[in-house]
Predict the structure of AB hydrolase-1 domain-containing protein.
Amino acid sequence: MKLIANALILFTGFGCKANCTHNPGMAYSFDNIVPSANLTWTPCFDDFTCSKLEVPLDYSNKSLGTTSIAFIKLAGKNATIESPSIIINSGGPGGSGVDLLLTNQALASQMFGDQYNVISYDPRGVNNSGLTVDCFSGNTEARLVFNRLHRTGSTNVSSTSFEEQYYSSSIYGDWCNNAVQNESTHGYYVTTPAVAQDLLTFIEAEAELAGQPPSDAKLWFYGISYGTVVGATFASMFSDRVERMILDGVLDAEQYYDNTWKDSVDQMDEAMEKFSSLCHSAGPGKCSFWGPTPANITARMNNIIRQLQNHPVPISGVPSRDTPTLVTYSDLKALFVTTIYNPLLSFPGMADILHQVERGNVSALAGMFSGQDITSDAGRIIQCTDSYRRNKLATIEEFKSYAEYTVSKSKYIGDIWPIVVETILCTSFQPQLPDSMVIKKSNRLLLYSDPVNGLGKPTPFPILVASNTIDPITPLSWARRTSSRFPGSVLLLQEGIGVSHY
């Protein structure tokens, strides 16, 4: 999910590291790193080392050739050659682990300590790794037109919005299918089972580099959001190769592979409702939308929702010569979605915007919804290829049932969630993947087609599953369900609101 990838961690890019004076012999772009079948580390971005590891396109048919996966390492100050490497898997799908580690270097050292090496990577199909596909082949006008046709806002914002979203979704798959067919023959070979095998290839290459038997290599892994699907998939496929694993802010793997993400809305309103009580407790000096009671704050917020639902507000742009725009109900709902990822940090900003809107100034809401338009295809392609043969959101009846369910579970966000999570875009994808890359249909969580059934298999060391008690995006129920699938795993709860790894 693009939103999860962007909102869970702020990927601000390379910053100064890519633009400052370059040191001789230092790589500042993965374009300058030669892919290798052996793990070869090159000094990069001043404080890191980087590698592009060649991996098979298809592990069941290695004659198809290879692609390359970009890895970046932050060496622990007190690490030795025997020190474990902890691999961080960012959110998404489609999030860049390279950007994640570059942006959060100091935080990574604080989190894991100086005795470990911290490694992250761009999964196949993402950013610096191979198999990237531009569904619109550089045609920015076509992409813009598609976003206008498809992203009509909340599913119930008009009498035709729901149907427009469903029927226009096939356009996206058609463009992606065409781009893969004509420009990137194996562009759909980016599924999560293939990523799990890439991780196995990496830890074996790392062991060999250290003079250890590859067969003894074990994975140290910290996955967040979509990264927890990667972790759960690896643990199901290669349960005996897990040394330490933390799954934080858990996305339910079964619902992910079924392409429903159905229960993601379970705690959204619970998080939103905390706004009123926390704003009231903070007082008028710290919460600009303060009211004499939490009920007063809630009532005024609901009044703003009703007003924008019935009366979009035009902004001409004439005085400032800006582009004219129309502030809509969907812009307000987009504000709510953005806020609940990290409520305690974002509630004050939401209060300020609601305060302005209540006084007739809606300009702060302008472009909130359109700012979430699809600009990169990696996340959608991974999401849609992963649900190949399992997609439970393919017909208009299934989409209607899904949209009705999300509305019934969340009055604040349920009606905009289907267009945010964009599972409906998978309707016309035709990936034609080999069995080695597919999670087959099953009544159980993961049935790998080799066949490897990870369920019921304990890992050598218990998996740690972490969650906030109120998680509006990756709800606590998903963490409990995931923990139940791995014998011996431990569930760690934090009394907090928001996505747990903030």
The domain at 2-132+188-258+436-497 is CATH 3.40.50.1820 (Rossmann fold). The two ends are 17 Å apart (CA to CA).
